Amino acid sequence: MAGKITVLIGSPRANGNSAKIAKIIAxxxxxxxxxxxxxxxxxxxxxxxxxxCNGCKSTRKCISKDAxxxxxxxxxxxxxxxxxxxxxxxxxxxxxxxVLDRFYGFLTADxxxxxxxxxxxxxxxxxxxxxxxAENCAAHLQQVCAMCGIQNVGTIxxxxxxxxxxxxxxxxxxxxxxIAHKL
Length: 183
Description:
There is one protein chain. By secondary structure, this protein is an alpha/beta fold. The protein is 36% helix and 20% strand. It has helices at 17-31, 56-59, 69-77, 94-101, 131-147, 170-182, and strands at residues 4-9, 35-40, 80-86, 120-127, 151-159. Helix 4 links the parallel strand 3 (80-86) and strand 4 (120-127). Helix 1 (17-31) packs across helix 6 (170-182). The protein is globular.
């Protein structure tokens, strides 16, 4: 597991704000010698949410054989993850939500994690509605990670109300690089 980072880009815009910031984090991790596996979720056909079959409770992993499974396997093998999403109706994108629902497969029936408990996360949320909305979504993502024993080491929650694509400032780039060094 040492040295691997899994990046989940929940934006359908490959060049959107959240994707750009996630790429800065990923590039910095690669520069540090980490292996980075990036999933552009919008480009993956057949992503599915949790079916609540509870097969994971006896096998200690999700048993649904679909397009989401390689993502979950990559997360389980990683020392860190990056969750990146634009904000849609004050929530993460639907693409990311499908994958997050499958994090249920990382938990026992009494909600203890199967994961090693040493993994780290970076969270990136961008929106057009205001920074408070982005921060609320980021807090939700932190809770999901915490349930799975994944420690958040840094969050970037930014707003671009006029959709001017001006939020990837030198300050945001510096924050992204700092977070990458914590992964």
